[in-house]
Amino acid sequence: MMIKHVKYSLGILGVILVAVLTYRLWYYVKVIKPHRFLADLDAKIADNPTTSIPYEKTRAACHKILRYKNGNHHDAFLMLSRVGNHESIPYLLRAFKREEPPSEDGGASCSTFHCVGALEKTTGTNFWLSYGLWEKWWREVGSKLPPDVIEANASNHWEDILSKLHVGTSHLDDREK
Question: What is the pTM of this model?
């Protein structure tokens, strides 16, 4: 009888051990690895600003980071401002919803501002700190647009801003004539 209980207990311990090891492996792959990749990339860029960024891999790491409530969203937002595309918008919106809402005087956390900046840079649209307007735009307009239209809109938006600030190369051609 006692041997039966010992075997039963060992079986339960085996199942628990497998579950714990599986969770630890999942946690490493889905949470720790993307954070390490982004931290290593940040360090490389800090050492050498001309470091080539692997866009697809960086974007995938940022998306993995933003899937979960906890994590270094701040750096993921900053990186998506550089490498984000139409696939990043749902991740940014979910993360924006989880961010601390703006205060009555319009103040918000640094991460919230970076999230909004990444959304603006990726979409070419600006609803500033209004999650409701961003979500409505995505639901009613953005999600129905082809990816190339979203990316063209984002590109045109930034070209307009740069031309208003007289930054870029287009205004240099006029001066040389």
Answer: 0.79
